[in-house]
Design a protein that fits this description.
The protein is an alpha+beta fold. The protein folds into 2 domains: 50-231, 2-Layer Sandwich (D-amino Acid Aminotransferase, Chain A, domain 1), CATH 3.30.470; 234-342, Nucleic acid-binding proteins (OB fold (Dihydrolipoamide Acetyltransferase, E2P), Beta Barrel), CATH 2.40.50.140. 13% of the residues lie in helices and 29% in strands. The strands form 4 sheets. Strands 11, 12, 13, 14, 15, 16 and 19 form a 7-stranded antiparallel β-sheet that branches. Strands 3, 4, 5, 6, 7 and 8 form a 6-stranded mixed β-sheet that branches. It is globular.
């Protein structure tokens, strides 16, 4: 016996010709958890590393290479990318390769914290090469060779991460900027090593030093000690208060006279006569001759002749090995001028240190 045909079933979503309707929207329970989005800050005051003579010990500390360049914050926003210096100046147009790479990152919004560097032939960050790529201090040249070594993420896809512990921020960062690669934005990798061992290796390879970061710390602006820097060779900013004129030197600069701050006052800390390149010396001489003064900004009792005094407006980055017993820089070498846009700071002497007012 033949079975009667089955009755056609109704379409899965109802009658085919009927309009589709969703469920009526229920009123939101005020007690229900709400996922809020944090407004994106226009700028975040950068966390700065506190100088220490040796690396800290303990499992709470993560270690990275210390990069020698310009501190930058890269803001990825719906309307585009902004690059701000440590002092809050907009340098977006100076780093086109970094901007282009930032637009390709897998984020909707983000603030990345890092250091713009230019590498030498051995793969070391070279502050002088970075300055040359930007046209020198005060220059307006575009730097295509600069690379952003990014080491933190402070804001991500609508969420402020500054109150999040460092370990979690690093985990998120590694999902945005993977290790390795040759792009204009690269991850500053955490190195699994004892601090003392890493510092020794860094110094053997001619690097500037290392950075130690507290894994449990949140992100705070200023030098709170959550981040620490340990250098192979000391390098700091000193005010130029004058120069010794010499007919046989580049730019006629025999030596620069330097000062540090001590309890709010500038004090003389010696001179530097090495490290100048010809083009640097000429640019420096031009800048200094515009701010000549008749009297020095520091007390000077030395015996040098042919001295020209200037207003202490220029800050030089100086490498040095140590301090002498009378408060002078030992084996100093000129690296370049710090940009005002990079919030150039003058080295602060410990108030308990010996006087720096003795003659050479």
């Amino acid at each position: 016996m033949t079975k009667p045909p089955r009755k056609p079933s109704e379409p899965l979503l109802g009658k085919a010709d009927a309009p589709l309707r969703g469920q009526p929207r229920r009123r939101r329970d005020p007690a229900q958890h709400q996922l809020t989005l944090d407004p994106m800050p226009a700028r975040i005051d950068p966390c700065l590393a506190l100088l220490k003579p040796r690396p800290p010990k303990g499992r709470q500390w993560a270690f990275e290479v210390k990069w020698d360049g310009y501190r930058l914050a890269v803001h990825v926003e719906p309307k585009g990318v902004r690059i701000l210096t440590r002092g809050g100046h907009d340098w977006t147009d100076r780093f086109p390769a970094i901007v282009a790479q930032a637009k390709r990152l897998p984020v909707s919004t983000a603030i990345l914290d890092g250091e713009a560097v230019v590498f030498d032939e051995l793969g070391r960050s070279d502050f002088g090469k970075l300055q040359q790529s930007l046209g020198g201090r005060g220059g307006k040249r575009v730097s295509w060779e600069s690379v952003l070594m990014v080491f933190d993420v402070l804001y991500l896809d609508g969420h402020d991460l500054t109150e999040t512990e460092f370990t979690a921020r690093r985990h998120l960062l590694e999902g945005i900027v993977p290790p390795g690669g040759e792009e204009a934005i690269r991850l500053s990798e955490e190195i699994e090593a004892d601090g003392e061992t890493l510092l020794r290796i860094a110094c053997e390879h001619g690097l500037e030093g290392i950075i130690a970061k507290d894994r449990n710390s949140t992100y705070r602006g200023g030098r709170g000690g959550e981040w620490q820097k340990i250098k192979c060779i000391q390098s700091d900013g000193f005010a130029i208060v004058g120069y010794q004129r010499s007919s046989s030197a580049f730019g006629n600069i025999g030596a620069l006279l330097l000062a540090a701050r001590k309890e709010g006052q500038l004090v003389y800390v010696g001179s530097v006569g090495t490290g100048f390149k010809a083009d640097q010396a000429m640019q420096l001489r031009t800048a200094m001759d515009k701010i000549k003064v008749s009297a020095p900004a520091v007390r000077y009792t030395g015996r040098r002749k042919n001295l020209i005094w200037i207003k202490p407006k220029l800050v030089a980055e100086i490498e040095y090995r140590a301090w002498t017993h009378d408060g002078k820089l030992r084996h100093p070498s000129y690296k370049g001028l710090r940009e005002q846009a990079d919030n150039a700071a003058i080295f602060e002497l410990d108030p308990a240190s010996s006087s720096s007012e003795n003659s050479l």
